Amino acid sequence: MEIEEVRRAVQETIESIAPGTDRRQIRPDLPLRQQIDLDSLDWLNVLAGLHDRLSVDIPESDHERLATLDSMVAYLASRLGRPAAPPRPGAETPAPLPCTRYLINGTPVTVRPMRHDDMPLEADFVRHLSSETRYDRFLVTLSELPPEKLIYLTDVDQVRHVALVATVDRDGRQTLVGAVRYVVDATGTGCEFAIAIDDAWERSGLAGILMHCLIAIARSRGLITMEGIVLPRNSRMLKFARQLGFAQQRDPGDRDTVRVVRTL
User: Fold this and answer.
1) What is the pLDDT of residues 168-215, one digit of tens each?
2) Which of 11, 125, 145, 166 is the most exposed place for a label (fewest CB within 10 A)?
3) 152 has a pLDDT exceeding 90
4) What is the pLDDT of residue 86?
5) What pLDDT shows up at residue 148?
6) Has this prediction a pTM greater than 0.85?
């Protein structure tokens, strides 16, 4: 691939993540994030978009080499054509799900697989969501999860139904502050996701962390597409999905919802 093709791919990826960006106004020698309104999630999505478009792995240790347009183009051009890493032994077996700790606004947060014994945590989590957040997540009015729904959400096989939770320590006990999941569809090549975040943790970056973990799992397991259902009035979720690279599609059979879809 010629260097100008790489430059165009970078510019088009940035424009897809930050609509309204004029590539002609980007100074090639100045830091991109000083010129374009890219928050941390947008920046991760730019890197993910470049990976998808150019099939180039970008290790986290190399992110500092991508500050300017010129340095990004040079870096990507230097990596194009490198042979892919050989598959790991036993790659056909799903890798263990992550258990990772983050520091978000000074609070330690653990992201780990959902367990069957998380039923009390999940019930309490949903109980304390605002009525609007509950409706946005479940698309019905409820104040308490019925027992069969609670079992469905927590008794997951982590193969066809994958679920992660985010927990914090409050007075010596775990409290669930976020949950994300996908369910593999009948074709075995796609999945549908759902996410819920405690109202106090909105805009903290936790939702982005959970979704990036979920997308990475789905991609590593060979799934091709991920989609979700969003209410048209939920502008915050629609923007969030766009930042993650999801395209919006109106469902002709259901005018009350919007389907968001992205290729993995």
Assistant:
1) 999 889 999 999 999 998 888 999 999 999 999 998 999 999 999 999
2) 11
3) no
4) 46
5) 86
6) no
Other beta carbons within 10 angstroms of residue 117's beta carbon come to 8
Beta strands in the chain (DSSP E): 100-104, 107-113, 161-170, 173-184, 190-197, 225-230, 247-251, 254-263
**Tell me, what amino acid is at 254?**
D
Provide the 10 A C-beta neighbour count for residue 104. 15
35 membership: H or E segment, kind and range:
helix 32-35
Q: Which residue has the tokens 């700790």?
A: 101
Measured in residues, the chain has a length of 264
Angle at 48 (CA atoms; ends 91, 50), nearest 5 degrees: 110
6 neighbors 14 (Cβ within 8 angstroms): no
Reported confidence tier of residue 218, pLDDT bands at 50, 70, 90: very high
Distance CA 212, CA 73 (A): 24
Q: Residue 177, by phi and psi: left (phi above 0), alpha (psi -120 to 50) or beta?
A: alpha
Q: In the 3-class helix/strand/coil scheme, how is 86-100 assigned residue by residue?
A: CCCCCCCCCCCCCCE
Position 204: which residue type? S
For residue 165, give the nearest of 121, 216, 203, 132 by alpha carbon. 121
Rounded to an integer, what distance in angstroms lies between the CA atom of residue 238 and that of residue 257? 11
- pLDDT of residue 87 exceeding 50, the answer is no
Q: Which domains does the chain have, with CATH numbers?
A: 3-79 (1.10.1200.10), 100-263 (3.40.630.30)
Q: Is the model's pLDDT at 85 over the cut of 50?
A: no
